[in-house]
Amino acid sequence: MAVINNIKAVTEALDVAMDRDKNVIVFGEDVGLEGGVFRATQGLQQKYGIERSFNAPISEAMFAGVGLGMAMNGMKPVVELQFQGLGLPALQNVIANISRMRNRSRGKWTAPMVIRMPMGGGIRALEHHSEALEAIFAHIPGIKTVMPSTPYDTKGLLLAAIESPDPVIVLEPTKLYRAFKQEVPDGYYTVPIGEGYKIQEGNDLTIVTYGAQTVDCMKAVEMIKSTHPTASIELIDLRSIQPWDKKMVIESVKKTGRLLVVSEAVRSFGVPAEIIATVNENCFDSLKAPLARCTGYDVVIPYDRGEGFHQVNPQKVVEAIKKVLDYKF
Amino acid sequence: MKYIGKFDPQKDEVVRVMDKDGKIINPKLAPSISDEELIKAYSIMNLSRRQDDYQNKMQRQGRLLSFLSSTGQEACEVAYTMVIDPKNDFFVSGYRNNAAWLTMGQTVRNIMLYWAGNEAGAKAPEGVNSLPPNIIIGSQYSQATGIAFAEKYQGKKGVAVTTTGDGGMSEGETYEAMNFAKLHELPVVFVCENNKWAISTPTVEQTKSLNIAVKAIATGMPSIKVDGNDFLASYAVAKEAVEFARSGNGPVLIEFDTYRLGAHSSSDAPDVYRPKGEFEDRVPYEPLIRLKAYMIAKGIWSEEKQTALNEEQDKHIAAEFAWVEQNKNYPIEDIFNYQYAELTEDLKDQLAEAKEFFAKYPETKDGGHH
Ligand SMILES: Cc1ncc(C[n+]2csc(CCOP(=O)(O)OP(=O)(O)O)c2C)c(N)n1
């Protein structure tokens, strides 16, 4: 067991996967010698050679398309996009080709590839570096989308993504890359795609979140004790966005009768809306308050000076919790 | 035509007027430019360099965001923006264009405000057609092409100039834009500032083509390679290219052969990837040294003038930064107001909700940063 942060967990997962299977390769901008802008692939070129870990010219559409070709022909490419907002040229291939290959070739060709990308705000970055676009990926049939928040999950989910027979988008919250460390098992293990993680059990309210907001929610759950000392909150880290752990969330809301979904993405047409709709369909008889969400606003992610206005923060979550808990019919 | 069509990119020919010591080696290729204009160009190069240095210091103190410096690339940036009219032509920039922005008439204040994380800095002053920094690499080439299309379609006389790096030339969109521009014979000048690096990836890992200029050949448009650290050569070619495009001959691609003397951005450490000695080898070719030596030899510049200019510019830079520090924050309305021509009903509700929250918990404005 080693105590490592999220970025190191990415490196370890890639190392383990490359060691097990020579068809696993990594590429993207600056991925080779320098190890990418966040150093996620640092050391891999030295260890596995320039054929398996290399710089690619700046052309994200090509990364995705080339990755698809490799995957169709027996390889396991793990493509790194430098930032989610800068990877948009790749989106065409993700949506138009990668997600559809199994379906349109009636299973003859498949796209067992991984595209990893840093995402999310809170790192004082420039324009296009702080987007949270998970809803766009989740909306596309044929790909799977995961967003780990802890080093254990980061390593396990990335290994599961590499093992997956389907294309997987791995979203890595930049804010958490070096935020904290955790004990992580050595060697190979996976965290199954589609399983949520219950951080704590509770009876009065279910909070569902993922990514960097897991940390905000944990803080909020502590803070709410000062005004609502007896409130018993169940906190779920979704980990996988699509498929997501419907069963865990539905069971939880049936027990608590209340739901708050927290995500830093802009509000409208987002992942929280999907979760709320599903819970509404399945738990209507158990509900004790309107289903709620705490999110960013429907604006372009502001540059640093205004980013704090837009970001979810623990106090915003606390206010949202109070509204749900104090609701009276 | 003195340059375009006369220098063959397929033979890797390069337009050069002065050597590294500022001595004219190709008098026939020298442009006609007044002493006044030379001094003006040099002053902007000097200002940009000093602003870069100052911003680097402020970034290290956490008072500015990560930014991208033009250090080493000032000659070509000043050259290709000096030859257009800021009011009627367009500059469609990338993110590493400090010297070009200044030449267009963007203020030190606005540029610093932008790097302090306030969108207000991205708004160009009245009469300055210089677009906000374009972070998504490659897409400025299409935007410039569209602007040029509109100029031609509407019978206006403007030219669009756009720029990217050697790395940026790997984005398919740059080729797509050049292809369209040539098909429609549009008045656009495509610039590549080949500074040899794209973050940690050297040019030789971007392309096997002989140089960047040859990338235009497949589109049918002319292209030319220039010593981008030679102000006179850069100015001469840029001027001819803009006139060429303005006269209805269609687009041109100029590759400026230059070198990134700084880090990729203020959060990057080039010593990790840059071969030992490369930087040191390039310093003697840097553009300010060369132009200054030329001007001193010509009798229009002196060390005294340099000292006075440095003092004046440093004072200006420090004063502008002081203003920025006082004025960098903005009210919550600013993140909502520019979303649509009019706030939608839904956004009005969201703004009200946000205002109520931050009135109650103003200190959480920075809560986004753990
Ligand atoms: C579409 C896109 N992909 C990736 C990036 C991230 N990125 C920022 S700068 C850079 C390197 C660009 O190198 P080059 O085009 O040579 O220009 P330079 O920075 O050297 O001026 C990269 C890959 C980006 N901004 N946009």
From TrEMBL, chain A:
UniProt entry tagged with the keyword Oxidoreductase: yes
Q: Which GO terms describe its molecular function?
A: oxidoreductase activity
Q: Which UniProt keywords apply?
A: Oxidoreductase, Pyruvate, Thiamine pyrophosphate
Superkingdom classification of source: Bacteria
Q: Does Oxidoreductase count among this protein's keywords?
A: yes
Chain ranges of the Transketolase-like pyrimidine-binding domain: 4-179
Q: Which InterPro entries match?
A: THDP-binding, Transketo_C/PFOR_II, Transketolase-like_Pyr-bd, Transketolase_C
The region annotated as signal peptide is none
The family database entries (SUPFAM superfamilies) matched by this protein are listed as: Thiamin diphosphate-binding fold (THDP-binding), TK C-terminal domain-like
Cofactor(s) the protein needs: thiamine diphosphate
Q: What is this protein called?
A: Pyruvate dehydrogenase E1 component subunit beta
- Give the organism, scientific name: Mesoplasma coleopterae
UniProtKB/TrEMBL annotation, chain B:
Q: What is its EC number?
A: 1.2.4.1
Instruction: Relate the protein's function as given in its record.
Output: The pyruvate dehydrogenase complex catalyzes the overall conversion of pyruvate to acetyl-CoA and CO(2). It contains multiple copies of three enzymatic components: pyruvate dehydrogenase (E1), dihydrolipoamide acetyltransferase (E2) and lipoamide dehydrogenase (E3).
A Pfam family (short name) is: E1_dh
**Which GO molecular function terms does the record list?**
pyruvate dehydrogenase (acetyl-transferring) activity
Q: How does it assemble?
A: Heterodimer of an alpha and a beta chain.
Task: Return the PANTHER family for the record.
Answer: 2-OXOISOVALERATE DEHYDROGENASE SUBUNIT ALPHA, MITOCHONDRIAL
GO biological processes: branched-chain amino acid catabolic process
Boundaries of every Dehydrogenase E1 component domain copy: 44-330
**Species for this entry:** Mesoplasma coleopterae
Give the CDD domains listed for this entry.
TPP_E1_PDC_ADC_BCADC
Among InterPro entries, the record links this protein to: Alpha-ketoacid_DH_E1_comp, DH_E1, PdhA/BkdA, THDP-binding
Protein name (database record): Pyruvate dehydrogenase E1 component subunit alpha
SUPFAM superfamilies registered for this protein in UniProt: Thiamin diphosphate-binding fold (THDP-binding) (SSF52518)
The answer to keyword Repressor applying to this record is: no
**Which cofactors are reported in the record for this sequence?**
thiamine diphosphate
- Catalysed reaction, written as an equation: N(6)-[(R)-lipoyl]-L-lysyl-[protein] + pyruvate + H(+) = N(6)-[(R)-S(8)-acetyldihydrolipoyl]-L-lysyl-[protein] + CO2
Which key words are in the record?
Oxidoreductase, Pyruvate, Thiamine pyrophosphate
Among NCBIfam families, the record links this protein to: PDH_E1_alph_x
